[in-house]
Amino acid sequence: MAKSTVQYVCSECGWNGSKWYGKCPECGQWGTVEEFHEARPAAGSKTAAPGRTSRTQSVAVSEGSRAAAKPITEIGMESVARLSTGFSEFDRVLGGGVVPGSVTLIAGEPGIGKSTLLLQTAGNVARAVANAGYAEAGRNDAHTVLYISGEESQAQVRLRATRINAVEPNLLLASTTDLATALGLIEQNRPALVIADSAQTIVSQEVDGISGGSTQVREVASALIDTAKTLDIPVFLVGHVTKDGSIAGPRTLEHLVDVVCQFEGDSETALRMLRAIKNRFGPTDEVGCFDMSGEGIEEVTDPSGLFLSGGGPGSAESAPVEGTCVTFTLDGHRSLPIEVQALVTKSVLPTPRRAVNGVDPSRIAMLTAVLYRHSKLNLLANDLYVSTIAGGQAKEPGSDLAIVSALASAATAKPIARTTCAIGEISLTGQVRPAPRMEYRLREAARLGFTVAVVPPLRKPVHIDGLRLVEAGTLTDALEALGIKK
Predict the structure, then answer these.
(1) 308-321 b/e with 16+ CB inside 10 Å = b?
(2) Which PANTHER family has this protein been placed in (predicted)?
(3) 246 is in an annotated binding site
(4) Is 112 annotated as belonging to a binding site?
């Protein structure tokens, strides 16, 4: 085993030093500084994988062929051919596809569908890597996809691949937890895409620490990143999350990789969201929508109707129902309609109940007080139940007007027309304030068939065909425009 130098690394912020501290000097967290043994680069290879080139050798070989520094105007802008994942939603989150040599970290709760998404992606890429489009990009030897599983056997992965229709002859499966073996497989096969599932199960024999520990995760990630950059092979790396939802392992793991994606969803629903938290090759405000089923994962290119009951304003079941109101929220660049439902009952308890789902609980108490103070509608002694449809989230301030309107509609038993939506923030003074990017929300409302939108006074006039805008400066005016009176 090569000589190693001892360092101490903080698993929270990534600080490193030659001395141990009980409290991290950088972030101030207690008990996060751990011992880290980093092997010195040897003359041969960094790991036991045959034929592997160390970082020192790679730098030495390429140092003579490139200048130390160049003017930015003299650096060329060569086009990079991205590899499609087979999911347009996935490609959009990544910024247009997978960049060669990039390392993408996919994190999420247990059982949310990370392995299913990546195995299905591996099957899609395996079908497409032999076509002329990717061969012309200079990767004529890359006709396979390598899936390395440290959690399941090859037979278990094959069973899941059969279920989701991801069985392809050029999809290579390997079951190993040894880092040297995994790196040897990558260098031997030179695939078009590598998927390592997961970073917490692969172990390096050159450093101390248990599987999944900060030392091991950092060493495994560094070796895979080095291989991806050296061989120009994109790598998908699966990461576990802790109890508080953060990515397990040292925080430097997120700094080292190129893209960090969070796979989210409610276990009680089939809807899954893929969000880009960090992306060196594209925007970080894109969101991909997927539907989880027994046959795998399907992308949802138009999720507008998922959060509306009765199929939206144009369906046969769009009769008005008391206690409902539709608003439009922004999730990245995407505007989504969210239906807010409210139920108001007389309370028999000393302290009335406030049960919510999909909305901010703290804003319900505030909006109830504003509704009583400025519209003379007293709901303080009633049990209030507020919920959204299909797990939608209406927690941004722009949903305040729809929440208040649904509560007022339920209390007065006066329904709001299904072709009417309400968008706006409610202040403590009873004023209705604009929400960010109103035009995006209103254009989506017109596209879905809404004909009336109750909005706050707009700073600049907006004209959208088929949609009549009713501006209301106060909460009372907005309720009157919606047809709700005490």
Answers:
(1) bbbebbeeeebeeb
(2) DNA REPAIR PROTEIN RADA, DNA REPAIR PROTEIN RADA-LIKE PROTEIN
(3) no
(4) yes
